[in-house]
Each structure stands twice: as structure tokens, then as C-alpha cells.
Please model this.
Amino acid sequence: MRDEQRFLEAMGEHRRLVLRLVNLYVDDADERKDLEQEVWLQAWKAWPTFRGEAKLSTWLYRVALNTILTLKRRPRVVERNDHLEQLPGVGHDPSIRNDDAQRLHRALRLLPETDRALIALHLEGYDHAEVGGILGLTANHVGVKLHRIKARLTELLKPD
Amino acid sequence: MDLRLAFAAMVPEEAPATAAPLEARRLHSPSQHPLTKLRRALLLNMGFAVVITLGLLAVMARVEHLLVNVLLGGVVVFNAWALWTAHRVRRRLPAHVSADHALLDELRLHADATDAMMRMQERVSLFVLPIAATGGFLLGGTASSGATPVDLLGKPDVLISLVISLAVLVPLAYLLGRWMNRVAFGRHVQDLRRRIAELEA
Model:
């Protein structure tokens, strides 16, 4: 029981991290709740394996990404396009009030799923080796992919 | 635009405080993860296999015809094999998502485990269905006519009916099972393989 309480407190501190990640993969509010719930469930089951060797946030990122990307999700058609303005509804999240954050969110939703994970880790401040460790790629590979993703993001975020 | 600041602002600072806090009861609700569903489905399969095997043994104890008993015995043996195979596949399936594996390894593990489960079920059905269908046909025939299985099989029209039943029912049931597997997990495996390819690209 005490362990459960400790877990809930520790996770409460990192809730924004999970929410940010979940928001990158689903738009629907109910689906988000379900996905967040699943991440916490899986984290709780894996909790006994947390030995404190990595930072809790890194450990949680690993569980969250492993859960989100191995889950079955409803198929969704995401159009590929060069400008966000041409896709007014795609990825729009009314809960995001900051304009830049809204634009970035919409642009990220247009990237392939694993690219979203990679750029999210980068934007959280992880270096290439750490990102590679979480995703199972070499640091060099991460660098190459990141370069491509940034180019695509620049293209998407470019004003018309 | 500062991407890091924009990224951080994607979830407002006040979100954790205003949204429903984490509750202990949430940690005990059933998981919707495919791994859990697969493990549950395999356990259910194993349960059914045990019940059916017990039923077959009860029928075998009542039926006196050797041929029917041999065929039913065949189904029992294959059921036991299917049970053991399901148990082996289930043991290989992790109980939860790993925090130790990198994403690429985890995706491979899930895709391979789901593939293995589908292949196992299809292979088992291919062996069990013909024997089960023949056993059922002979059991029904002997029960309704009172004739022995040897007498039944001695009649050309019965023999032709049996062959036609097998030729139609076995592939049909096999294809139906395969289709149901594809509907339930095919798209999921495709998604997992696509994500693996994306990561490796």
C-alpha cells in the first residue's frame, strides 16, 4: 500500500510528461484518457523493475513510449501536406492555448509516429545517445533522423 | 519559434492540478493492451480445450465403437498438444510492457509474439479440424442410425458425404479462423511492423 502511494506521488510529479506524449498520438479526449490510463497501468506493473539506475522521467518515457506504440489504436487518416494552413482541422487541440504550441502540436501530428517519439525526446532535452538508448538506435542514426525530422518540421511550420 | 518552449507549453502548467488526479483504483482496472488481451485469449483457449477434452473423454467412455473412439482419442491427443503449445506461447508473452527494453526491441517482441500466436492457432486448427469433423460425423451417424462406424463407412453414399463434409468444412473453418485472426490482430501486427520499419529507416 505504501509502495502504491509512493508510486502515485512519483507519477503525479511526472504527469505532464505523459500527457504531452499522449497528446501527440490521439486527438479524441476519451481516447486520451484511456491511453493515459494504460500508460499508468503499465508503469505500475513495471514499477518493481525500477531500480533507480536511470532518472524516473527517463524510465517513465521508456514505459510510456513502449506502451503507446505497441497499443492497438483506431485507424486514422492523416493527410500529408507541406503547409499546416492547408489542413485547418488536423491535430487541432482546443486545450492548447499557446499559439506556437498549437502550431507545433499540429505539425508534430503530421509526422510519422516514431518520428514524433524521437523529436519529443529531443525537445525534452535528451541527447542523441540517450534518445538512442530509449528507442534502440545508435546516436549517429538518431542524429541523421533528427536532421530529417527538423527539415520536415521547418517545412510544415513555414508561414504560407 | 522556440521549439522547446512551444513543446513544453503543449500541456499547460495547471493541467495536472485541474485534471483528475491519479487514483489508486485506476492501477487495478483491467488493461486494454493487446498483450493482456492475447494472454487472456490464450488462457480462455486453454480453458476451452480442457473442458472439450473432458467432454470427449466422457463421450469416449460411453461409445463402444473402436473407430469412433480412435478418432476421438486423436482429437484428445491433439487437444493436449494444442494446450501445451498455447501454454508455451503464453509463457513467452510478457505480462506487461517492459521498462528495460528499447522501443525497437519491444516492437519486435510484440510483433513476433502476436505472429507466433496466430500461426500456432492456425496450425493447430489445421490438424484438429479434420479429425474432429470425422469424429463428429461418425458419432452423429452411429447415434442416429444405430449402425456401427464400419457399417456406416461401408456405404458409398455415407463415405461420399463424409468426404464432401471434410472437403467443405475443414477449409471453411480454417479460413474462417484465419480471417478472424487477421481481423483481430492482423492490422495491429502490420502497424507494429510499419513502426519498426519507420524506426530503422
In short: The longest helix of chain A spans residues 139-157. The mean pLDDT of chain A is 84. The two ends of chain A are 55 Å apart (CA to CA). The CA atoms of residues 47 and 125 of chain A lie 24 Å apart.
